[in-house]
Design goal:
6 copies of one chain form a homohexamer. With 235 residues, chain A is an alpha/beta fold. Chain A has 2 domains: 107 residues, Rossmann fold (3-Layer(aba) Sandwich), CATH 3.40.50; 105 residues, Rossmann fold, CATH 3.40.50. Chain A is 45% helix and 15% strand. In chain A, helix 4 crosses helix 9. Chains in contact: A-B, A-C, A-E, A-F, B-C, B-D, B-F, C-D, C-E, D-E, D-F, E-F. Chains A and F meet through helix 4 and helix 9 of A and helix 4 and helix 9 of F.
């Protein structure tokens, strides 16, 4: 089974980070390839960043199906281009945000999503609302660090993650933490150990969800929401 | 006052259509300019089409602010790129879908949105849900015509619009019709005359909403959801 | 075009205030008339006040249609009698509360409504819920001043508005302020200047919404919710 | 214990009907008085009718407290003036609509409300939505008879009630019927006998709810929504 | 009329407490019997406790119908086994939680439910959500006392109830208190006297609701949700 | 890794069926054990059946943790006892209903759940509502066959599944089918082949979700909803 993980931003360092963290996760017989587009923003922190990142990401998705991959994992928590990607191809496309939120909903009473900068709070909240999971949301808390800062300074990241998780538990009633950025992968061991909270790390969840879909022969339905786009002139 | 209407697809014919229909609408002292990007899809009928149309549309939005326009109207009912556009500029950006839906909610009990092809029904429904207006929705009904067919064959379009409006009233309990495609502008006089339903035509509503915002000195808040995107490297 | 603004309470001073503030707003070719009933409560701060204010207000609405006005604006934020008014006449009837809430939802992430006395908070919240806009509500905050105090002491009013807007931004996450009383018209320039929040002033929004409806030939549908009441004996 | 039942319309015949039907319901030691205002509409079938009926009804409510009644029952299914009545007095005020809907929610999976004319469907639906009970609503079905026709022609009423109840069960999945008009009191024995559905008759439910409140010493809280209206000039 | 009150836990002391408190409540001509199962947990504070308490409680419910009781009241606020009980019998089965929540919704703007230990907060919240009444919920507050502590130490219980009610009013905007445990019956006179809040005591409400249903000949519908379970082998 | 699949009913034949269908699904290095309790109902088709099945199922869950299993899968679509099971143990407990619903929500626009007898429709609908997924539900359709009939007559089952899936697509707008009974495992190949719909078979999804949780070291949080029950006397 061959699974491709697409980091939709152009930060090679973040792709390397994902590659390292995911290496030990995938099952036997699974080949995992991690890539990123070569143009677009180096991190995704606004609707504008998403808009620029999506077209080159969709090119990679289409290429992945052509190259015989069995599934695609979009490794950005806001799932940019997820719907368009599912329209374009027939192999399963997993959004790490969507799959992590649905799993988190099964593991406790209320989850807190940790995001990067304060401006991302509204967008994350809508992400969750669209999936019907607001009744499981304790809070969205910003770490007040940019995506690139998260990636560059792992010790400060761990301190901030632990602090916000502690506040989520005591102030917001959360019992589950969702790491709301692919750049946070691997940074939360202390949260479980020190706080006894369950921590959902979206990138590994995305990869194992993709593996589950391939093993069960499941993929998104092409009958409705994800029908192939009508052919047309694109100038 | 100068208002720019941006048709986010690359169909000049549809931009001409909008220009003609909107000419008589705008107030005295309002200069109205209608444009479209020169690359991207000729019509928008999928999430994939939206993904490709958004970046060139955002270029036009940014140019409009630079050129001193007082407001922008995005003239596609699915409001592609609306959030990113508001992040990018400080002048008001009106989505014809959003403004038409909020006005329709004030004009009756339940509205039916007429869309183009059946695949657009889920996306339109989510559009309405995100705005909190599902309690005012009677139905989304596809005309079973593509955007370009609507634009090319106005007599068949009128027949289909009337037929679906009639069904919306009798089967779905609608008392208001929303024309869910910029290409439908001007095609619904019969619906009001023959059925006594109120018909909301989004492009004119968008233009007058923009005019209202400019006259009142109102624009979207830059404190939260629409804050300017963080500066960063874009490869 | 002739638009009538009906202040449903019997305070002439508040009607004068509205007349002054709205004079500069309306478009060229628009004649604006501001009136109030001659019996009923001098201000509206309870369901009981609304109950007494509605019948004389409806008389004015009916008179306005008979006198050839093109549209009616009900200038009280709680929109007393809006539904009954739309049943009675065929010209558009705009509620300043309803139209301001729908516009505010288009201008930011979450709005805070400033109301008068604490007892009005539940009623305002329900007002917003009925329109489906709770997902856009940050908070309803009372100024702890009665309607007549607002009208009489504009400097204290401005101080209170600024203080509550500041708290709404910092404590409730609001980026938009809605002035939830017609008596607040014109009192919020500092909020925009000092806090960078968008402020929606309902009375001007109501007038321009009425103007938009008349210019587009739109009015509420008489097929459903707003059908003319059955004729009957009224003792 | 003394309970007053106020029919808010001016139809003496409907008040007589209520008096007869309720006579056998009330507990030992309960004195039941049925009245109606002497001015206002003879039936309530629109927001306009409600607007005219409320002020004289509120006079009766205030008088009831002054005269030492222990509780008030407002005997119109749309509960006109309920909120204002609770503001005015400290004795319990029961709306037959509200109390019947909350009881119906405890008796089955989904209820259907039978109303009078088709125009009342939206208003009834909102009535239910405001109470949070839409998840228990199967449908609102009009009998296509006016209030006065219901009151005048009891045999045709029974036929129509049975027909719509049958359709509610087979087409809408209802297992409970709520008689959505005080004029329907006593007309539904066949529905239970022939269809095995549970039928909730709001006027008796309202009376026994009032009796329950008095026996338990319960009344609406005056701390929030139902605080006494501020004193003020009423011209 | 004969009504049986079933305390689903095995604490005789709590059953005695209920018997004493309810003795004065029931109407003339009503025989009230209070019982509890002889095996199962001594108090109900988890889903596990509920699971063990339900089968012996259902035996008592079935026995009650066989013994000619006219109605059953399940006297535990979380209504364990309510749905199964209604499937099993045709006499009305009242859950004190369900009936108290629906009555509380009619008595104010927002209620606070007082529960026992913090772990019960999520379950109580879901209880309320399932009934559609979240829009009436101010908060669920734990007394931080176990069920048996409540029953054993009535003076400490009264102090805690008053303290949490006070906090509910000032911090959560509650105007109504619901005593969320049958063991709290009779412990809240001070809350009304000192705070002017309305206090809903579920056990008496459950008994009078049962009496109302019997007097009106009402019971849950057997056509849908509460149909008799299919006969089958039970090993 | 050792995973135990607990069929909560006492039908050995259904346990055998599950064992056969799941044998090929689990990953290398996974030992899968399928069991059922030896007392309780032979199938689960009512709240009453659930009530009787839960206590012996919980015994098996507790035993599984003691015997060193890494995860538990509850193999009944209505997830009886799921919450109590998670309270009792610290190893992950997966409900096949819950995990299948959350996966189905990621694979299309709207899913239809196929259930057994019509009486189960309300309970299934509530199951979905509690998880926030009503916005993804097209319909719940009964096969009009009991659980044991499904298990005994696989050819008739396949015909019924195909017929209802076809109706779900054409009448209800479904693009995904969820097999709402463990007894349906393996019966839906034709639905995908003939209708092009995505079919979610809950038992395999439950097993692979358990495997995912174990591989990622994830389990439900014990801080909130699933805290261990307070120790107490159980008579």
């Amino acid at each position: 089974m061959r699974i491709i993980v697409i980091n939709p931003n152009t930060s090679e360092s973040m792709t390397d980070h994902l590659r390292r963290e995911l290496a030990s996760i995938s099952g036997s017989g699974v080949e995992l390839v991690c890539v990123n587009p070569d143009h677009g923003p180096v991190s995704i922190e606004s609707a504008f960043d998403e808009a620029l990142a999506i077209p080159p990401t969709l090119d990679l998705v289409r290429g992945a199906e052509r190259d015989g991959f069995d599934a695609v994992v979009l490794a950005c928590f806001s799932d940019p281009g997820l719907e368009a990607a599912r329209e374009l191809v027939s192999i399963p496309v997993v959004g790490i945000g969507e799959s992590a939120l649905h799993l988190a909903a099964q593991l406790g009473r209320r989850f807190t999503v940790l995001t990067t900068i304060p401006q991302r709070v509204p967008c994350m909240t809508e992400h969750i609302a669209r999936r019907g999971l607001l009744n499981r949301l304790a809070s969205v808390r910003p770490l007040e660090m940019s995506v690139l800062e998260l990636d560059a300074d792992s010790s400060r990241t761990k301190i901030r993650v632990l602090a916000e998780a502690r506040a989520a538990a005591s102030e917001d009633g959360a019992d589950v933490i969702v790491l709301g950025c692919a750049g946070l992968t691997g940074s939360a061991a202390e949260v479980e150990r020190e706080l006894g909270m369950t921590v959902v790390d979206p990138s590994p969840v995305g990869v194992l969800t993709a593996e589950t879909l391939v093993r069960l022969g499941l993929r998104h339905s092409k009958r409705g929401l994800y029908a192939r786009p009508p052919a047309k002139l694109i100038k």
